[in-house]
Design goal:
It contains nine helices and eight strands. It is an alpha/beta fold and 226 residues long. The chain has a single domain, classed as Rossmann fold, CATH 3.40.50. It has a five-stranded parallel beta sheet with strand order 2-6-1-7-8. It has a three-stranded antiparallel beta sheet with strand order 3-4-5, with helices on one face. A hairpin with a 2-residue loop joins strand 4 and strand 5. Helix 3 runs parallel beside helix 5. It is globular, with a radius of gyration of 17 Å.
Length: 226
């Protein structure tokens, strides 16, 4: 772990595609270190969900960007539970993980206006003692001077299998082939968008979790940051 002055928050970025495990691992690391947590992907999901709830046309970049500017959101990392997310005071932790919201989030995340609206809000999360920032452009765009940068990846098939198990546990009917296709399409969008494309930051430690358990990856992350 880098030696920093007490007034300078340490920022550890964890980027990667959907299903790479970065969300779970970011929460584990934040608890382990006693740091704050930023789930940037949740912010874009929240913008999408807010637009859907308010009947804002997802194709209207100006309207969606305006919505992002005034987003009322709170992250709560409590005890051993998953991080809880509140939108306008209402818990939406599970709702933003629905597949329809995921696809809508990928769409609105490509809008420069939305990304600009959320940029400073994300940076404001960096307070002492430190921050674990989870996303797709944390190490490249939002926190380019982060002390530690990680990039998690896995094959589309492995990530689809993880998502399939999650959705089945929630009682949702899903098709594996469609999940693989959706993940590949999302990877294509995220990697080729004009603003902040998905890619490892310069100097990032890249970890392929395809054949690894969450605990295995966590152990490797701890080794990388110490």
């Amino acid at each position: 772990m880098p030696s920093m002055s007490i007034s300078t928050p340490i920022v550890i970025t964890i980027d990667g595609p959907s299903g790479s495990g970065k969300g779970t691992l970011s929460q584990m690391l934040a608890r382990h270190l006693g740091y704050h947590l930023l789930d940037s992907g949740a912010l874009y999901r929240l913008v999408a969900l807010a637009a859907m709830k308010k009947n804002v046309d997802l194709n209207n970049e100006e309207a969606v960007s305006q919505l992002a500017t005034g987003l009322d959101v709170i992250f709560r990392l409590e005890n051993d539970e998953s991080a809880q997310i509140l939108l306008e005071g209402v818990r939406v932790t599970d709702e933003i993980r629905q597949e329809a919201v995921s696809m809508a989030a990928s769409k609105v995340a490509a809008y420069p206006g939305v990304r600009a609206a959320l940029l400073e809000r994300q940076r404001a999360f960096a307070v002492t003692p430190g921050l674990i920032a989870d996303g797709r452009d944390m190490g490249t765009t939002v926190f380019p001077h982060a002390q530690i940068k990680l990039f998690l990846t896995a094959t589309a098939e492995a990530r689809a299998e993880r998502r399939y198990k999650q959705l089945c546990l929630k009682g949702e009917s899903v098709d594996m082939a469609e999940l693989v296709n959706d993940i590949r399409e999302r990877d294509e969008r995220d990697s080729n968008r004009a603003i902040s494309p998905l890619k490892p930051a310069e100097g990032a430690v890249v970890i392929d979790s395809t054949a690894m358990t969450i605990d295995d990856v966590f152990t490797k992350i701890l080794a990388a940051i110490t």
